Amino acid sequence: MKKRWEFRRAYNRGRKVWDGLYVVYVLPTPDGLATLDGASRYGLTATRKIGDAVRRNRAKRLIREALRTCEAELRPGLDVVVVARARAPHISFVEACRSLEALLQRAGVLTSSPSTGERGSTVRRAETPVGETAR
Which residue has the higher pLDDT, 34 or 43? Predict the structure, then answer.
């Protein structure tokens, strides 16, 4: 997503969930704007409240990578806007993934829930010590 009106539409009509790191807006992609494969579209926002360009870019890089880790579990056909809050550039990648995954779960847009044990994100597998199996 790149157009201002697409972001405004998400802010005004989307479902909003938040925590101390991010605010996430989610709504279905309009039929005329859907991608050919029906994949979800993403928009990232990091305002000047976060800091200089270096901090804003770091916050957006963390969001982008965290979205990639849970993209396979995300329902298709959605517009997802993630707004970084002031603490966002100062966290680790693992914290970013956990926060974003929890927010997407609360928004109800992940295909399976973490409580069922059906899925394990890339981050959880990476945290398992070598030689041990994940539970």
Answer: 43
With 50 as the cut, is the pLDDT of residue 18 above it?
yes
Quick count: other Cβ atoms within 10 Å of Cβ 16?
15
Give the count of alpha carbons within 13 A of 34, CB side only: 13
How long, in residues, is the chain? 135
Which is nearest to 16 in space by CA: 6, 29, 25? 25
Q: Report whether pLDDT(102) > 70.
A: yes
Q: Which CATH number fits domain 4-127: 3.10.180.10, 3.30.230.10, 3.40.50.720, 1.10.10.10?
A: 3.30.230.10
Q: At what angle do helices 53-70 and 93-107 cross, to 10 degrees?
A: 60
